[in-house]
Amino acid sequence: MLRSSALRFARPALARSYAAQAQVAPVALNNIEASWKTLTPAEQEQTFKHLEELQKKDWKELSLDEKKAAYYVAFGPHGPREPIQANGGKTLAGTLAAVGVATLLFYFVRRGGKETPKSLSREHQEAANEMLKEQRSDPLTGISSAGYKGKGQVTL
């Protein structure tokens, strides 16, 4: 009876010591940000699994380094979250080339277009003003009204 009660108290202690040995990280968790890229994929996987097991415990029991490492492994700038290092010169050259092509296209379309219409000449617009005055068009506020001081149809 004494022996069985002694074993009963010893077993949880043994289980705790095995659990403590199993909790040893495959790599040092302090400053994991600096060492993550130098780890082999196998070490990264072991570290990930170790941190996954640690997160199943109460978060109040985790050390600050363990919390930081868990956050970095889950949300750090590695793998698909790694920032894209775009070449700014290539982007600038492409943008300038596109603007240049658009400018040339605009120039050649304008060059090949028809002459300006006759209705855009100043003489034609003044003649339109005279015709509107003769027809007494818009007598309340327009060109035919008393005291009108605007330009009417003349835009040039």
TrEMBL record:
UniProt GO BP: mitochondrial electron transport, cytochrome c to oxygen
Topology with respect to the bilayer: Single-pass membrane protein
UniProtKB keywords: Membrane, Mitochondrion, Mitochondrion inner membrane, Oxidoreductase, Transit peptide, Transmembrane, Transmembrane helix
Annotated stretches, region: Disordered: 117-156
Gene3D superfamilies, A to Z: Cytochrome c oxidase subunit IV
Keyword Hydrolase: no
InterPro entries: Cyt_c_oxidase_su4_fam, Cyt_c_oxidase_su4_sf
Localisation per UniProt entry: Mitochondrion inner membrane
Main location: mitochondrion
Record-level GO cellular component terms: mitochondrial inner membrane; respiratory chain complex IV
GO MF term list: oxidoreductase activity
PANTHER family (alphabetical): CYTOCHROME C OXIDASE SUBUNIT 4, CYTOCHROME C OXIDASE SUBUNIT IV
Pfam family, one: COX4
Protein family: Belongs to the cytochrome c oxidase IV family.
Keyword Thylakoid: no
Biased composition (Basic and acidic residues): 117-137
Stated name of the protein: Cytochrome c oxidase subunit IV
